[in-house]
Amino acid sequence: MDRRFVLAIVLMMAVLILPPIFLPKQKRPVPRPTAAAPATAVATPPSVDAGPGTTPTRLSADLPEAVVEDSIEVSSPLYRYTFSTRGGRLVAARLENYQSMRPDEKGQTAQILRPESDFLTLALLVGRDTIPLRNLTFTAPTRDVQVGASGASLELSAALDSVVGVDLRYTFVPTDYRIEVSGRVRGLGPTGGTLLIGIGPGLRNTESDSVEHSRELGVVTKDSRSNLTRFAELKPGQSKVLAGPFEWVGVKSKYFVAALLAPDSARAVGGRIGGIQAMATDRVRKTPETADLWASLTIGSDGTLGYSLYVGPMEYPRLKAIGYGFDDINPYGWAWLRPVIRPVAVGARWLLVWLHEQAGLAYGLGLVVFGVLIRLVLWPLNQRAMRASMAMQAIQPTLKEIQEKYKNDPQRLQQEMFKLYKENNVNPFSGCWPVLLPWPILIALFFVFQNSIELRGQAFLWVPDLSRADPWYIIPIVMAGSMFAVTKIGQIGLPANPQMKMMLYFMPIMMLVLFLKFAAGLNLYYAVQNLASIPQQWLVAKERMKKASLTGSVPPPAPPKGSGKK
């Protein structure tokens, strides 16, 4: 039984760790552009001649350089967005409810866009011509937009020449990070065209761990399901096409996202964002932090266009309210394991937030309560598992006799073993699966603590941030010590067993090494769950000792060292 338990632990860890390493990622086919799938954006706009019958347009070399670049501020209680008149780009997004965790920005609000932001930079694809509008000067009626209770809007206009121009209207609300965009491209003629929208080069680091920030950067797309392409998968100079149509696309970091969403009417029929072309532009770091990213949107024959934006934190309720699977912009776990992990992670996150917002508990204390609740819920299952283990111990002498008697006849041995289990109403596996049941919760919580913005910056006792590792490693040590205590008490009254002794020392040490750099909140939860299980282990140990004394099968005490007895 102990051998099977150790094997189950090893196999479970192998299943979690090895597939993402060795299984090749499935390549998605790139369909040819059709009416249902608009032309894919071009990362580097080419300079080509217009074909016969196409609308004559000026190319990038002929575009005037913007002489003056001005800023337009849009402010609300939640955010402060900054648009540039040069190209109409969104160059800054400060989130008023979130602090930067960078050591050099203590006390400052989180600014999630990079200074060289190309987010919302526009280009036009007309016929075979790609016309970048980055250096075009956009005009606005005001330089300061205050978003009041009824909302506010910002109108931007730019003219390429006396015929071709772009008019955009951004509509803001004070209680959300979602922005509605409507507009019109003038002078394209009846053939229409395609609007190319820049969503690069990625989000700015606002965290204390810059390495983890680099690892979490990626572009997420949603067709029938969400797909995450990390910047680490992109190579400088090599374009990667993500074929649409998509319902939404976005660039993410660990906690924040800047996304482009198709209109509700278009998403209801499968989306209308044409596609993404991505190419890493960071040639300095091993893990790229910047990428050239363009999305495409078909412009109607009348020149009208519309889409939505979300520039803000990955707060699950806000993402969920948008619909169309936008809450999966922050996917929990590996894609192949997500169907199992996601429901547990969402439920755990909801309970933690409820304990904080409704019960008024700090997140650290909420984790303590959460750990105790989980152990109470699992109490009946653990009780059943422990009693099943006692039943297995009671038949061990007979089982050994059968194994010795039929060791040369495997088929008869199996028959006799199952007969013994049936006569004594013992299930050899009933003691294992309840012990393994907390593991899906533990794995789900790993991703909750790794990605849930609600725990970002939440302090508990000496720990400044529950989403980060304990700087003093106290909680991981307590976790490992509590695991040792649970195992030690669980072995009271059992005969000496080398495998059990190995488990007593091996498992706590292994978990300490594994969890040392994990989030302090995860270690706190597991430590509390272990401590909460000690009373049950003690009661079962007493029950086991009492039952053994009545049957006269109390295991003899180990001989003192040096006595010479064997």
Helical amount among residues, as a percent range? 25-40%
Rg is 31 Å
Average residue-wise pLDDT: 80
Indicate the overall shape: elongated
The fraction of residues assigned to DSSP E strands is 15-25%
Number of separate domains: 2
Helical segment count: 14
Q: Please identify the structural class as seen in this structure.
A: alpha+beta
First-residue to last-residue Cα separation: 25 Å
Count of strand segments: 19
Q: What spatial order of strands do you see in the largest sheet?
A: 8-9-10-19-16-15-12-13
Protein described:
The protein has 566 residues and is an alpha+beta fold. It has two domains: 2-14 and 346-551, no CATH class; 116-134 and 151-331, Distorted Sandwich (Beta-galactosidase, Chain A, domain 5), CATH 2.70.98. The protein contains 14 helices and 19 strands. Helix 5 (338-357) packs across helix 6 (363-377). The longest helix has 32 residues, at 520-551.
Keywords summarizing the entry:
566 residues; alpha+beta; Beta-galactosidase, Chain A, domain 5; 14 helices; 19 strands; 35% helix
In short:
The protein is α+β, with helices and mostly antiparallel strands. Helices cover 35% and strands 22% of the residues.
